[in-house]
């Protein structure tokens, strides 16, 4: 099973995590193949929202909404079960300072993925 794990943090400055703690989490998962990819995202102020209305492309630079929490990174996990994904997420350093959202990838009836969906 493949899960997208969103790393969510508050906008509070004390929500930072020691990079060595992250490396202790990342390295064994990369070696085992359980972590497919992961990245830290640029600040929300660098985001761009794209939508089409009335045939026109509209873009908005962030931040967009009043929020106390933001997605600051992500990891894609390839695991055997939700329980395994939860166990992996519970060891992430941000589980102590923020939160982690696990979302499974859609399983389509024909078994094929939908690129760009």
UniProtKB/TrEMBL annotation:
The UniProt family comment states:
Belongs to the YciI family.
List, for all copies, the residue spans of the domain called YCII-related: 10-108
| Pfam families associated with the record | YCII
Q: Which PANTHER family match?
A: BLL7171 PROTEIN, BLL7171 PROTEIN-RELATED
Q: What is this protein called?
A: YCII-related domain-containing protein
The record's section on InterPro entries has: Dimeric_a/b-barrel, YCII
Q: Which organism is it from?
A: Microbacterium helvum
């Amino acid at each position: 099973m493949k899960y997208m794990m969103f790393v969510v943090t508050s906008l509070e400055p004390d929500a930072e995590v020691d990079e060595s703690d992250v490396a202790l989490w990342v390295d064994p998962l990369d070696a085992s193949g359980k972590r497919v990819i992961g990245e830290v995202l640029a600040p929300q102020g660098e985001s761009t929202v794209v939508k089409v209305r009335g045939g026109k492309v509209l873009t908005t630079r962030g931040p967009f909404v009043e929020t106390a929490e933001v997605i600051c990174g992500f990891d894609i996990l390839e695991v055997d079960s939700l329980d395994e994904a939860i166990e992996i997420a519970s060891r992430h350093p941000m589980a102590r300072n923020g939160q982690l959202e696990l979302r499974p990838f859609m399983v389509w009836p024909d078994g094929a993925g939908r690129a760009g969906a």
